[in-house]
Amino acid sequence: MKTTLTAVRVDLGAVGGHLQPSELLVSSVRASVEEKTDNLLIDCWVNFTGDDITILCTHENGIDSPKIREALWDAFEKGVATAGEQGLYGVGQDIRDTGMTWAAKGLGPALAEMSFAERPNEAFLIFSIDKALPGAFNLPFYLAFVDPMHCPGLILSPRMRQGFRLVIMDVLYKEYDREIELNAPEDIYNMAALLRDQNRYAIRRIESRSTDEQAVASSTTRMSNIAGKIMGKDDPVAIVRIQDAFPAAGEVVAPFQIGPYVGGFMRGCHHGPLMPVPLSTKVSYFDGPPIVSCAAFGLREGRLTPPVDVFEHPMWDHVRTRIADKAVEIRRQGFFGNAMQPFETIQYGGLVNILRDLDERFEIRRIRLTDSWTDS
Ligand code: F6R
Ligand code: MG
Ligand code: MG
Questions:
Q1: Contact 281, 39 (CB under 8 A)
Q2: Structure pTM?
Q3: Which residue among 18, 133, 348 has the greatest number of ligand 1 atoms within 8 angstroms of its CB, and so is best to mutate?
Q4: Given a cut of 50, is residue 104 above it in pLDDT?
């Protein structure tokens, strides 16, 4: 029997703009998903991080199952009805203008799925990010799976000796899914050359080269560049299997202490440090900072253990204080330089319009030959 994990992040509306979903909204989605464990699903878990709800389902229908999508869609609709009744902000944000295929226009909920034969002691993590793009996982996952400075298992465990294969997606390629497979360690410079650009490239999958088993599935969705606006799915989710032939839980989560600057802070247009937070954490400061939560699970025949809240440990309080300083520091420079995303990835039309209007007011002044220093 193969178990499938389907993890989804969806924004159906929130309180205080885009800060957090209401308790009633989360519980109505949870109730609707739980109903489906009578037949279609084996188990489920529903929580929130920032203004998106994370849904994890276990089942035997494999990846890309229309039945599972329909069931989830039904839960989204129930949530939207509740959000509407409560007058939440941005009701149905991720399911409007889209359909059951979700990714058709680069919009829609973020989805990560993985199907595998369970190990006798299966263990995995669910990461949920708010206010950042799928490329926000690039650095921590690269360090956890490729770099022996961060993952000692690469030199200490014979099961990891052959390294890992990374599948990286070009999320700006419009027509189809464009991806490349690169092998660590021989391709690490090539990996770095792509993964440095979080707006264009995102890790989609990681596999063990020793066992060929899949370790990571991340919700990478193509972005659409419509009339100069990047439309796409931010706020990703990732499934990471751990231990044995994969890095240990601690090896995977340790690189998150860096709090790298990622794109997606305030209006999706600014850079902010990615702060590891406990489950059910809202955003606040400047609609952020970008946050990531991590739930650890055990699994037996599709049944989940209750989650362990990984970033709730006191060690991460120290990390959060340092990352809060990074957030305040970059905000001191407002709109200037690296505080904002490059023009090409700014999502809001306002800036595009200002620059288009100003473009007409620019004048080209040609240098007269007599003014030239070399023309004496
Ligand atoms: C960023 C985000 C928020 C909103 C901001 C403006 O991902 O969700 O920073 O962009 O609160 O929201 P609107 O345009 O809906 O008023
Ligand atoms: Mg939102
Ligand atoms: Mg969000």
A1: no
A2: 0.94
A3: 18
A4: no
